[in-house]
Design a protein that fits this description.
Chain lengths: 439, 340
């Protein structure tokens, strides 16, 4: 092997090494960036992936193989390297012709092969940065499944379950609806995945709202029923009270007495009726109390029911006194109704449903708007003009500028209808042209 | 292919160098020009000499003809010169028997070296009469093709400053010239020597002459100079790079039409002759670079922008040589080779 062969071989090896390293670092950069991103994604999004993220390291030998193959392809051929050394050493083609017959007679001297320089700082920095990125990604802790994916709604479910149970016991909810709600709550209790917390909370809110609405409706019905029972009780008490002779004489009592006789209601029946009404009221009060204990109705509703149960005082003596003082109502039921209202229930409300609406200072239904003609807009007329001065000469136009007619230029010595305009982008060309002429 | 051996090559190299030395002795102060002229002759190419009057263009052609022992004919091209004045024509002659017949009277082109002085003063019709002669080394007249003597060279001259009454050479004809050489002035020392040693500027007679056989031997040796594949590819890439679209900024900006394949052939031939003068049996990259300006400078058709910027083809060629890599090795941009 002569000096030229050695130089060629040496340069080929150096070039191949540089190309291999360059390719490998490029691939490593790309792979590490991808690997790091995948590791981060898995750590944050899929912590339950069964395999270790270190599997990415297995690709490094593959990268090396790929870099080797590509570098081998990129490696210049022997002839190209020979030509390169010939050119650099100024051998005048003798080195390239070294394989031609008769070349041995010509001596060529190659001292050293050219040095291979690689400006690979950027590539190296990128590779190191990508490796550091992977290492950093490997140190990022995985998000735990139990802590993050469970949604603790057991307390709410328990609370709702008790409510549904109560509503079911009190027969407020229909059996089918209660079963549906219980199933929903069971499902919530068993599958608190937390993947979609909004949906879970939506279901809880829905059940909560349904139970509350059922409780409120039941409470309203109970209050109304209590009022009715109070009236029944009071009516029965009124019929059963012997001290109401004065009232019996009243005109309105005649129909009620007739009805009572027709039904065959004796004094004992009236006592039983009063007793039944009392028990009914007590039962309703107990139901409302349970609802209040379960915080399904507020204290106001409960108080309303209590007031409805006690309306009119409930005592015979008070009823007698009331009837005596209010003997004018023609019907006993109306008088009892007024008695049951008592002194009002307090608070601000909108009154009864059949109360007339009142809007304040209303106009008469048959009233008409009074027609009124608005004044017309002011027109600038001569009458309204103000004279500031008068002149005796003809008006003159102000000398603002001279008309150029068809000419584009208003130069003093006349313009032209067509003017060649040298655009800014042409100016340099024109200048260069005339400068060349001067030279 | 067998490489020329040193013993085989040496006498031819010495002979070529002796021609060069003789030219340098006869015409003073133009070593580079003489070298290119000799290269052009060894490559069997035609030469176009451009320079102001009085610089010795005609003297150069005469000296060359004397040294090479070749027949030289000079034609002063004028606007009224006709093709027949150069090529020859059939004339009516009476034979000894009294018969009249058309006899071909060869023109001055039937010579070894035709000195076409101020070639751009002839009309395009006359200029085009040279096309076949320069390319085919033959003349066709009235349907008869007559070969020209071998070797045949055209050495044309033109004046770059007087353009009135001239007809610029068309591209087809310019392309047929191997070299376009600029004949410049000489320095004070040379002028002093000319004045001192040359009475009336008369150049000395050549001391050594080359015989026809020796000249044929030189042509044969030039033909045997080995052109490595890498060098031929370099020539091809150089010529291809002269065309717009090659990506070289100077070419893109200033060149409207690049060199022809004939330019590549001319480059290869001239490089061979250059290698011979350098005493080598092979063509190197440096040989190509030395002849590139002379071969390509008249083959690049520059655009108007070159005129505006005052850019000559030489500057474009310098950029070309600086850009096109000899080996064409496509290394990545961040990998470089340094030193040798």
């Amino acid at each position: 092997m002569n000096g030229a062969d050695r130089a060629v071989l040496s340069l080929q090896r150096r070039l191949f090494s540089v190309l291999l390293l360059r390719r490998f670092l490029t691939f490593l950069t790309g792979w590490c960036a991808l690997w790091g991103a995948l590791v981060l994604l898995l750590r944050r999004g899929f912590p339950d992936v069964p395999f270790s993220p270190l599997w990415g390291a297995a690709a490094v030998p593959l990268l090396l193989v790929a870099a080797f193959i590509l570098a081998r392809r990129e490696r210049p051929s022997r002839d190209a390297v020979l030509a390169l050394i010939d050119a650099r050493a100024h051998c005048g083609g003798l080195l390239m012709a070294s394989t031609v017959e008769g070349a041995q007679a010509w001596e060529t001297r190659v001292d050293a092969a050219p040095r291979v320089q690689w400006r690979g700082r950027r590539t190296t920095v990128a590779a190191v940065a990508s490796v550091l990125f992977v290492l950093a990604a490997l140190y990022v802790p995985a998000r735990t499944t139990e802590a993050s994916q469970r949604l603790d709604v057991s307390a709410d479910v328990e609370r709702l379950d008790k409510r549904v149970e109560l509503l079911k016991e009190e027969q407020i909810l229909p059996a089918e609806q209660a079963v549906t709600m219980e199933n929903t709550l069971d499902e919530l209790r068993n599958n608190q995945s937390g993947n979609d917390p909004a949906k879970t909370w939506e279901v809880i809110d829905s059940v909560d709202e349904a139970t509350m609405r059922a409780a409120e409706e039941a409470a309203a019905a109970a209050v109304q029923k209590t009022e009715e029972l109070t009236r029944v009780e009071t009516m029965a008490m009124a019929l059963d009270t012997p001290g109401l002779d004065a009232m019996r004489a009243a005109e309105g009592m005649k129909d009620l007495e007739a009805e009572a006789k027709k039904l065959g209601l004796s004094a004992s029946d009236l006592q039983a009726l009063m007793e039944a009404a009392k028990q009914g009221k007590a039962s309703l009060q107990a139901k409302l109390q349970r609802l209040a204990d379960a915080k399904m109705i507020d204290a106001k509703t409960l108080g309303k029911a209590e007031r409805a149960g006690k309306a009119g005082g409930g005592g015979k003596s008070e009823l007698e006194a009331f009837l005596r003082d209010n003997a004018s109502p023609p019907r006993l039921s109306d008088a009892v109704g007024q008695f049951c209202k008592g002194g009002g229930q307090g608070g601000v409300d909108r009154g009864r449903g059949d109360a007339p609406m009142f809007f304040g200072d209303e106009s008469d239904v048959m009233a008409k708007f009074r027609e009124m003609t608005l004044p017309s807009a002011d027109v600038a007329s001569l009458e309204q003009s103000e004279v500031v001065g008068m002149s005796t000469s003809a008006p003159t136009a102000e000398a603002t500028g001279r008309s150029t007619g068809g000419a584009l230029s208003n130069a003093k010595d006349g313009g032209s209808a067509f003017t060649n305009v040298v655009l800014p982008r042409h100016r340099g060309t024109v200048e260069r042209y005339f400068e060349r002429k001067k030279k | 292919m067998t490489l020329l051996q040193p013993d085989e090559l040496r006498p031819h190299v010495e002979r070529a160098k002796s021609i060069l030395a003789e030219l340098d002795r006869i015409l003073l102060g133009r070593t580079d020009l003489h070298r290119l002229v000799v290269i052009g002759i060894l490559s069997r190419g035609h030469l176009l000499l451009e320079g102001v009057p009085g610089l010795g263009k005609t003297a150069l052609a005469k000296a060359l003809g004397d040294i090479l022992g070749l027949e030289l004919k000079r034609v002063q091209f004028t606007p009224d010169l006709m093709p027949g004045d150069i090529l020859g024509t059939n004339i009516l002659q009476e034979s000894e028997r009294g018969q009249r017949q058309l006899v071909f009277q060869p023109g001055p082109i039937f010579t070894n070296v035709l000195l076409a002085d101020e070639i751009n003063r002839a009309s395009p019709k006359t200029q085009s009469a040279l096309l076949e002669a320069m390319q085919e080394h033959a003349v066709t007249l009235f349907g008869v093709t007559r070969p020209l003597p071998s070797p045949f060279f055209v050495m044309a001259s033109q004046n770059p400053i007087e353009f009135e009454g001239t007809y610029p050479l068309p591209e087809a004809q310019i392309d047929r010239f191997l070299f376009k050489l600029h004949v410049g002035g000489v320095d004070v020392d040379v002028l002093d020597e000319i004045i001192s040693t040359r009475r009336h500027g008369q150049p000395p007679a050549p001391q050594a002459r080359v015989t026809a056989a020796e000249l044929d031997g030189l042509f044969e040796v030039v033909g045997r100079i080995f052109l490595p594949r890498a060098v031929s590819r370099y020539i091809a890439r150089l010529v291809a790079a002269t065309h717009p679209g090659s990506g070289i900024e100077a070419v893109e900006k200033y060149v409207s039409l690049g060199a022809s394949p004939r330019a590549a052939i001319a480059l290869a031939e001239a490089s061979r002759a250059e290698a011979l003068l350098n005493g080598r049996p092979t063509v190197g990259f440096d040989d190509v670079k030395r002849v590139v300006p002379a071969v390509l400078n008249h083959r690049l058709i520059l655009g108007y922008r070159a005129r505006l910027d005052g850019v000559a083809s030489r500057q474009v060629l310098d950029a070309l040589l600086a850009t096109v890599d000899e080996t064409g090795m496509k290394l990545p941009a961040d990998v470089e080779l340094a030193g040798a």
